[in-house]
Amino acid sequence: MVNAQPPKNMLTVRDNRTGKVVDIPIQDNSIPATAFKVLKAPRAEGEREENETEKGLRIADKGFLNTAVIRSEITFIDGDAGVLRYRGFPIEQLATKSSHLETAYLLIYGSLPTASQYKVWQDEVLHHGVMHSDAEQFFKSFRYDAHPMAMLTSAFAYLGSYYSEANPSLQGQKLFTKGDPESLAVMDKQIYRLIGKATTLAAMAYRVRQGRNFVTPPTGLSYTGSFLYQMDHLGEENYKPHPVLEKALDVLFLLHADHELNASATTVLQTGSSLVDPYSAIAAGCASLYGPLHGGANEAVIRMLISIGKPENVPGFLEAVKRKDKVLSGFGHRVYKTSDPRSFIVRQIADEVFRVTGKDELLETAMALHHEAMKDDYFVKRKLAPNVDFWSGLIYRAMGFPLDFFPVLFAVPRVVGWLAHWRQMMLQEGGVKIWRPRQIYVGPGKRDYVAVDERVAEEGPRLTPSPVVHSG
Ligand SMILES: CC(C)(COP(=O)(O)OP(=O)(O)OC[C@H]1O[C@@H](n2cnc3c(N)ncnc32)[C@H](O)[C@@H]1OP(=O)(O)O)[C@@H](O)C(=O)NCCC(=O)NCCS
Fold first, then answer.
1. What is the pLDDT of residue 299?
2. What whole-number distance in Å separates Cα of residue 8 and Cα of residue 325?
3. In a domain, 38, yes or no
4. What is the pLDDT of residues 331-346, one digit of tens each?
5. Ligand 1 in contact with 258 (CB < 6 A)?
């Protein structure tokens, strides 16, 4: 029977199959999914044994729509209010007052660094930017038209092969989880290396595609200044990236540094939960980010704007969106139900960049699209507003980056967020638990092997391998 006066901070659940009642503690507005395992029931008449009913109730959550997988102190998002905070600091304050590397320290270690702490941090990160010269061969081994994300993803895994001292498979599985000074030192060194070399690897992926020789990371430039130098330096004396573009890229990096448990951060944690080395975990995150539902939207915005062509075509395009024939890329978000707070900052950066580069010819179309969509009932009713990708692609294009390099410009700064989440998990109270979700098995029940000449062919779409036409 359900208690007459249910205890506060408890969820009381009654299993109507058995009448069993359990009180489940609510902590931080969440309940442990394992609490439901005690709700066991005899298998109902005709029920499949694979349901494992007598072993306890499972929680189904396809796509992690309402499952919290970790306690985190890093990033907070209120999607209804359009709020994004890193370690408690509003993104707007960080974007105007901080830098990407300072914010990286904040995200990973939890506080804003003092001047001397920052100096050590910046020196270490930039010092670790140099790659072994063998890496040139690695990048040159890709096909001439290899996608830069294929190169970057592989490069992170490749990078790990240089550091056997950072590999728990070789050094012992507690390498990163002990939390003592020695273990923290090994962990932090990999953090310097991964953030320091992310720009170098990305720049190498860029240069190999352009047919340019590689350059050594320069000294005396900022993190993003060094990145721009490594991509664009063509032998000029005293070459320095344009300060407005360097600053713009730095703010864009800061805005992209973390966004709590998105698909790629979750992938890094899932992969890291097996205690694999951080290079493999970051490579996995990079692969996840590459997908068009995640890191590819800024590129999709540009392709969409090119297809619209000019402002006069906007109404026709919006009609097609409303008929569900098209999607308005750069609008809508799983979490934000109002404008993405980063989109306002990116819009301002766009103006600063265009003053240097000249206006992108697609800007007028983008502005008309934004204006029309924001007052259209279809978008208002569904709470669809611009996300960070709506304007960022225009900036990258104006700065001269090729379209397929856009996801790289997202992945490089996101290495910071991935590492912040990875480090937090390695050091979390109670140690690391391998992430092993459950499934609901709906396949065949137990059946016996059938000899080949007694089999009846099962045929139909998806049931047999697809035929391949060979060209000879
Ligand atoms: C981001 C995104 C995947 C979120 O999806 P989601 O949270 O699952 O939202 P839903 O797909 O449930 O959308 C709710 C409604 O809005 C519509 N909608 C959502 N985003 C839309 C968009 N960009 N253009 C047109 N319609 C959109 C859906 O068709 C749906 O309409 P319905 O209620 O008539 O079926 C989605 O908004 C999207 O595809 N946006 C464009 C891609 C993009 O910019 N991604 C970058 C995100 S940072």
1. 87
2. 49
3. yes
4. 988 888 888 999 999 9
5. no
